[in-house]
Amino acid sequence: MRRAVVAVVLAAASAAAATAVTVTAAAASIALARTTSRVAWTVQAVPSPRGAAANALNGVACPTTTRCVAVGVATTPRAYPLLAELWDGRSWSVQPIPTPSGSGANSLESVACPAPARCVAVGYRTVGPGYTVALVETWNGRRWSITGSPTHVGARFSWLAGVACASATSCEAVGSYETASGATYALAEGYDGHRWLLDGVAQPRGAAVPSIALSGVECRTATSCVAVGHYADAAHVTRTLVERWQGGRFGLARSSNPRGAPSSELRGVACRSATSCVAVGQYSSGRIFRALAERLVAGSWVVQPTPPRQGARSMELDAVTCASGTCVAAGSFSTTPTNGFSLVERWSGGGWVTEPAPTPRGAWVSLSGVACPSPVACEAVGASAVDETSRPFALRG
In a 3-state reduction of DSSP, which class is residue 6? Predict the structure, then answer.
C-alpha cells in the first residue's frame, strides 16, 4: 500500500525513484483483533505550508520528550518543495528548509536527531528528465542546510530511505541505486564527522536482474549498525534482507521469511542493544498482505506473530522504534482497494498487540514514521487525505 499512491504526493516523481507515501482511510466499524494496551493516541494539529495542496510526513525523530522533528514533502501546482516540521512540546510548526535549485520532484524520507540541536534528514532530489540523486540535509538547531552526498558510479537513479546516527559525528544512511540496465542495488553512505562517503554493501546473489533495496537502518554505536530491506531471488520471489556492519562495510546476515510467502520485505528496524533488535515490514499470503515483524534472538532473526485485523486485505508496518523494554510499530491497513486506516502495534515482551489509533472521519490516513523518546511518550507521523488533497498527519501517544 505504501507504494500505491505516490502520485497523490509526488505526481512528477520517477517511478523508479519514488519511495511511496500511502494515504488510507479509517473504518470505525472494524474491531481490534487484540488490544490490551491502555495507551491513548490523540490526533495533533499539524500545519501545511502555504500554497501546498499535497503534503506528507515520512519520518520523525524525537531527541527529547518535548522536541520532535518530522520531514517529508509538500507539493504546489508548479513545485515540489521539501517539508520539515518541529514539535516544541506544545504545537507543530513548519520549519524553513531549502529545496535544491533546479530540481523537480524531491522528498525527505527519514530523519535522525542525535542531539536536540543536531538532525540529519535524507531522501532524494530529481535532476534532469527524471534522474534522481541522493539528498542529505542537516539542521543545527537554527536552520536546515543542504549537505553534499556522494553518487555511486554508474547510478542512473539513487535515493536514500533511512538514516540513523550513533552520535553527532557518526551517521549511516541506506537506500538504493539503479543502473542504466534497470538493475537495482543496495546503497549505504556514512558520515564521519566531516563528510559523507560511500560504504561497501554486500549484494545478495541469485537474481537474474538484481532488485535489491535497503529501507531502514539502526546504529547503536559507530561500529554497530543493522540495515534492513528486501531483494528478489532467481525465482523472482521477494525476500527479506538484513545486513550488519562488519569491519568497515555491511555484510549479509541471515533473516527469516514467513513460510510459503511469495513476497516478504522489511522496512524499518530498531535495536535496544547490539544483540536485541526488531524489524518490521509486510508479507503476502495468497491475495492478502499481512504485517511482518521479526526479532533478533540469540543471533538469529525469528518471525513474530502479529495480530490480525478483522476484514483486512492489506496490512503493513513501515516504521518501528524501541525504548527500554517496549517497541512501537506504525503503518496502515485496508479492507478494500479504496479504503484503509492507520495501524499502531506495541511489543512489551509478551507479543505484539494492536493499539487503537484515531483517524479523522472521512480521511485517508497512513503512518510512515514513529519515534518514542520514552516508553510513555511517542510520536507517529504520516499523511491524511480527503479526495486529492493530503495533509501532514501526527498522533501523540
Answer: helix
Task: Tell me the C-alpha distance between 353 and 347, whole Å.
Answer: 7
pLDDT recorded at residue 37: 53
The neighbouring-strand residues paired with 380 are 370, 395
Alpha-carbon distances, residue 359 vs 26, 340, 348, 395 (angstroms): 6, 10, 24, 9
Cα–Cα dist 166/256, whole Å: 26
Measure the CA–CA gap between 217 and 220, rounded to whole angstroms. 10
Distance (Å, whole) CA 209 – CA 218: 28
Residue-wise pLDDT for 217-258, tens only, equals 999 999 999 999 999 998 889 999 999 998 889 999 999 999
Distances (CA, A) of 329 to 150, 153, 269, 326: 31, 35, 10, 10
Query: Measured between alpha carbons, how far is 211 from 25 in angstroms, rounded to an integer?
Result: 31
HSE, side-chain direction, 13 A CA sphere, residue 349: 5
Sequence-distant (6+) residues with CB within 8 A of 180 are: 154, 156
Beta bridge partners of 270: 278
Position 87, amino acid: W
> Could you give all domains of the chain from N- to C-terminal order, each with its CATH number?
6-18+58-327 (2.120.10.10)
Which residue do the cell numbers 525513484 mark? 17
> What is the rounded CA–CA span in Å between residue 73 and residue 124?
11
Confidence of residue 38 (pLDDT cuts 50, 70, 90): low
Dihedrals phi, psi of 171, to nearest 5 degrees: -135, 155
In this structure, are residues 77 and 123 in contact, taking their beta carbons and an 8 Å threshold?
no
